[in-house]
Specification:
- The protein is of the alpha/beta class.
- Helix content is 32%, strand content 23%.
- Strands 6-7-8-3-9-10 form a 6-stranded mixed sheet, sandwiched between helices.
């Protein structure tokens, strides 16, 4: 493990009457937060999407208001050092911040250089920089990617890189905003283990924003629940019963649609016919001879390890890239809806109102209805980039659905969503399937996949595709238990 940098010990993190108001937003993102986090604690920030979790992290790390404009009032001190109003570079040696969007954190073109960048700017001796980079990459499981270009990484690989770059700087306090959102189950388990080790063996203070809480129960964290900018509950979690009592435990309604049986028969032509396609990068194959069809009213979920080609497969289906072998046959006049893994990649306008207008939504009553359904009420004139990641995700799902596509491609649509909003996304998928849309869904959340998918495609060594029960049984037989429902709870 990497050694933590020292700052004055004893005072912990003190937050007093912290209020953050973003421009053109009616309600404050944080409204009078008072909190103390002790040295060596593991704290989990939970609560509805848009409740202020990310804003709290960004403000304490100096990004608000230095990078993100906002009116900030109150105070915050880290071991006696004032935080508010300081440049993020002054804070980073003591408080490391892994951002919600890893893409926004990467600033070099090479994995090794990215992790070395922080320690080098702290004037760490060259030999120690090399050691820190090696250890940090090993801890998050991507040492084998050390010479890879950062532009060639998958979303999950990029997330691990962002975590490694902060660990290499050795801060005593670490804030992580949904650090496992883009990670496959094995990667998520590794990161949770690293966080536990940072606290238990090194005494570092770790604060994590998470919606997926079951894997953290084993570390007995203290959970702070935020709602509308206020801390509304604090509690130590020692079992899944504690999560259930706090209404934080996930259990998903069965959301499979019956539309596929009604809308198509075996003789109907598929929307998409994927025929023995192959694809790879730099001589490294992702998949070969991959074949399957997508029919109306059917939900196909694509799962598998980070870097196996899930996002690439969506891009191939959408005709954004061309397969290097085989071909993809599409139904003529196909209306396509695409939700990117990173929401900001498909946000183009300065206001949410204008973002909807791109997709033809100009009627005020329809706009207000869509905003209400996606829990973005009152934000029509707000900047999309001022939204939380979860709010941006719901915006992109809503705009994609507003054009009533025949084929809907969803890349990690549940990221950043609390329980109520996950159920909303599930309902939107089911409604689209019921009216006859074909849906391809990429997700690392196996529990959700089990609740919604008609078929599951696992992109791995043997690429099984079939009913959820058959694919999960196959993966269990192969020892890939982390890719089967109930894994986190069964191992507690």
């Amino acid at each position: 493990m990497l050694s933590a940098r020292s700052c004055r010990q004893g005072d912990g993190l003190r937050i007093e009457k912290l209020r953050v108001q973003y421009p053109r937003r009616e309600a404050p993102a944080l409204d009078g937060v008072d909190e103390t986090i002790e040295q060596g604690e593991l704290v989990v920030l939970a609560g509805p999407s848009g409740c202020g979790k990310s804003t709290l992290c960004r403000t304490l790390a100096g990004f608000v208001p230095d990078v993100i404009p906002a009116d900030v009032q109150g105070g915050a001190w880290l071991d006696g050092m004032p935080l508010l109003g300081r440049d993020p570079s002054d804070i980073s040696p003591f408080l490391g911040y892994v951002q919600q969007d890893p893409d926004a954190q990467i600033c070099t073109l090479n994995v090794w250089q990215e992790v070395a960048f922080g320690p080098e700017n702290l004037c760490v001796p060259a030999q120690e920089v090399e050691s820190r980079v090696h250890v940090a990459l090993s801890e998050v499981g991507i040492l084998h990617l050390a010479e890879r270009s950062t532009t060639a990484l998958s979303g999950g690989e990029m997330q691990r890189l962002a975590i490694a770059s902060i660990l290499a700087m050795g801060p005593a306090w670490i804030f992580l905003d949904e650090p496992t959102a883009n990670l496959d189950p094995d990667g998520a388990e590794m990161i949770f283990h690293v966080l536990g080790q940072l606290r238990r063996r090194e005494g570092r203070t770790v604060t994590v924003v998470e919606h997926r809480l079951a894997p953290l129960v084993q570390y007995s964290p203290r959970v702070m629940v935020l709602d509308r900018g206020h801390v509304v509950e604090r509690r130590h979690i020692r079992s899944h019963y504690d999560l259930a009592e706090m209404r934080l435990r996930a259990g998903w309604p069965q959301a499979r649609s019956k539309a596929g049986q009604r809308l198509c028969s075996p003789g109907d032509p598929p929307l998409i016919d994927v025929m023995e396609i192959g694809f790879g990068y730099g001589g490294r194959p992702l998949f070969q001879n991959l074949s399957f069809s997508i029919r109306r009213g059917e939900v196909i979920a694509v799962i598998g390890p980070n870097g196996c080609g899930k996002t690439t497969l969506l891009r191939l289906i959408a005709d954004l890239d061309a397969p290097q072998g085989g071909r993809i046959k599409r139904e003529e006049s196909l209306r396509l809806g695409f939700v990117s893994q990173h929401p900001h990649h498909q946000i183009f306008e300065r206001t949410i109102r204008r973002e909807y207008a791109i997709d033809g939504v100009r009627d005020e009553s329809k706009l207000n209805r869509l905003l209400s359904e996606s829990r973005l009420d009152g934000l029509a004139d707000a900047s999309p980039l001022s939204l939380s990641m979860g709010e941006q995700r719901r915006l992109t799902v809503s705009t994609a659905l507003s054009r009533r596509p025949d084929l809907l491609l969803l890349d990690e649509p549940f990221i950043g969503q609390d329980r109520a909003n996950v159920i909303w996304v599930l309902s939107q998928i089911r409604e689209a399937a019921e009216r006859g849309a074909g849906i391809v869904l990429v997700s690392h959340d196996v529990e959700l996949v089990a609740s919604i998918a008609d078929r599951v495609l696992y992109l791995g060594d043997d690429v099984p595709c079939g009913s959820p029960d058959s694919v999960f049984a196959h993966l269990s037989e192969q020892g890939r238990h982390a890719y089967t429902p109930g894994y986190w709870e069964d191992r507690q």
